[in-house]
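re: that chain from earlier
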Amino acid sequence: MRKKVWLLQCLIMMQCYLVFTVSALEVVTQEKADASIPIVTPSPPEGNTTFLDGTTWCVALAGVPQDDLQDALDWACGLGMADCGPVQPGGLCFDPDTLLSHASYAFNSYYQQNGNSDIACNFGGTATVTRNNPSYGKCTYAASGSLGSTATSLPIDGWSFLFCKLMGVLLLLFLRS
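^ sequence. v structure.
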């Protein structure tokens, strides 16, 4: 009987953790969804070139001050909520390890997530819209309609993995006793 109670407590703890994790993810997802809802106007938004002139990408401008480019990259990967995982060490787009390359990937991620309008590709004058696909090797830049589904998945970060691993070890120890 004592083993069953202990097992039940472990399962309840895991369930509470997963519910908390999913709830936090839903809040972030909802905030991002609310932030990207376009304002409907009778005419196409000013500067929107994706649907008028074909597929476009947003890339960093060469020759701009490095400090400005770094500030814009920090904003895109932070408050802008761009997908910057591929330009992190070990990511498919990490090489070449240059500020211009990393900023281009992040700027395009933000641009694609936010309506492909010129205003979403400004970054303080450090970026520009292009019709030339900047993808290279295994590094594929998103294009309109290629961002994938909006289905959410559970985040598997370091703490989540560690928690699940610890719970698994505890359950194994319990079952062996």
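Residues 38 and 164 are 39 Å apart (CA to CA).
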